[in-house]
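Ops channel
N.P.: pipeline sanity check, posting one input/output pair.
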């Protein structure tokens, strides 16, 4: 089935409007390209899930206003404006599951009809739509045992947790490494709930922080001890059993280095997935002073092999996506508002 020329997509209607600026555009142009460069592209994915953004609509609005005035100078101006607008109107949704509709010439391992999960990248984004164009290099097959919603939660959150634990902390997820103590902050959130489960596949003792309402939930994920972040000990990140952390997978925000420092083992490392400018300064200071305790900012570099690994874990029942709530595409504004509030337990999913 070829992708439709026009599709429903959720797009920003203006700049700086938060969730309320997201609107459903029923006439968004679907941008399926057959030949999109080297190694790329699974035509378009029909979504069982998620997202698209404001760039196209903004451009179409400009077109409507300029009517049929396609002189070359207007075209040139529009191209410039489009470039400018594209720089700012980035969509809120990157993770998508769906079915491959068409593949480009460089695609080797996917074909029309395949069920897949993919991530679009922060600059392309735009997953809140009926169709998206995705890179083969960031797309994994979704087996029937893994639901569309469970797969949709995985890419950015699961890969961030995986990268922090394996690449940054060096933890072996087959349990073969030496035992280490890990603290996961905001363990009830999208990244945190995957981080706890993945950490427990390694040889780890896991301490986790979350709100009071999620203490049991995080224990059920496998954490060995759980701290309510609103209590004095929780705010101080003090382990109830008195251990020092070898690694902190830091998914919350606003915790200063001075809070981490006394809780770290001699060579303890804070892997910060929400680094602020203060954190970056702390990181530079630790490096300059050759401190054994380190703060390491993390930026996700998504990889298909790792996404395949996570999908397989879900298939084998070793990892689960906990779903906070599901929303229809027409209610994407509510979903986005909930994400911005920062009180999700697990992942928020949007469905057509
Ligand atoms: N570096 C990267 O490449 C990368 C990749 C992905 C995500 N991120 C960032 O990582 C952060 C976490 O993302 P997320 O999607 O996992 O967040 P999230 O799902 O919004 O996390 C919400 C959860 O965190 C809990 N929480 C909030 N503040 C807390 C605190 N101080 N201590 C303990 N728990 C706390 C909340 O509990 P209550 O409701 O009880 O308050 C809620 O359950 C975001 O800032 C995101 O932008 C970075």
């Amino acid at each position: 089935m070829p992708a439709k020329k026009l599709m429903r997509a959720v797009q920003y209607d203006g700049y700086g409007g938060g969730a309320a600026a997201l609107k459903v555009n029923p006439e968004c142009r679907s941008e399926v390209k057959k030949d999109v460069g080297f190694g790329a592209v699974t035509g378009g994915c029909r979504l069982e899930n998620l997202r698209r953004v404001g760039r196209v609509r903004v451009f179409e609005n400009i077109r409507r206003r300029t009517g049929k005035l396609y002189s070359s100078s207007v075209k040139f101006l529009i191209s410039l404006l489009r470039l400018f607008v594209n720089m700012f109107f980035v969509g809120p949704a990157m993770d998508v599951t769906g079915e491959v509709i068409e593949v480009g010439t460089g695609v080797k391992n996917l074909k029309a009809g395949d069920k897949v999960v993919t991530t679009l990248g922060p600059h392309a984004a735009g997953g809140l739509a009926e169709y998206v164009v995705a890179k083969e290099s960031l797309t994994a097959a979704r087996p029937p045992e893994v639901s569309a919603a469970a797969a949709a939660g995985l890419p950015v959150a699961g890969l961030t947790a995986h990268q922090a634990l394996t690449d940054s902390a060096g933890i072996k997820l087959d349990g073969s490494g030496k035992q280490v103590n890990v603290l996961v902050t905001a363990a009830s959130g999208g990244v945190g709930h995957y981080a706890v489960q993945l950490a427990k596949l390694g040889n780890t003792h896991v301490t986790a922080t979350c709100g009071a309402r999620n203490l049991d939930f995080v224990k059920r994920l496998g954490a060995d001890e759980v701290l309510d972040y609103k209590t004095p000990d929780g705010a101080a990140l003090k382990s109830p059993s008195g251990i020092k952390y070898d690694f902190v997978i830091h998914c919350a925000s606003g915790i200063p280095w001075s809070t981490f420092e006394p809780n770290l083992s001699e060579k303890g490392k804070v892997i910060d997935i929400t680094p602020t400018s203060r954190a970056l300064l702390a990181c530079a200071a630790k490096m300059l002073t050759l401190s054994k305790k380190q703060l390491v900012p993390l930026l996700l570099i998504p990889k298909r092999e790792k996404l395949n690994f996570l999908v397989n874990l879900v298939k084998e029942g070793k990892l689960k996506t906990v779903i906070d709530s599901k929303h229809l595409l027409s209610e994407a504004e509510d979903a986005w508002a909930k994400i911005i509030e920062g009180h999700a337990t697990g992942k928020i999913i949007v469905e057509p």
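N.P.: looks fine end to end. The first strand starts at residue 6 and ends at 12.
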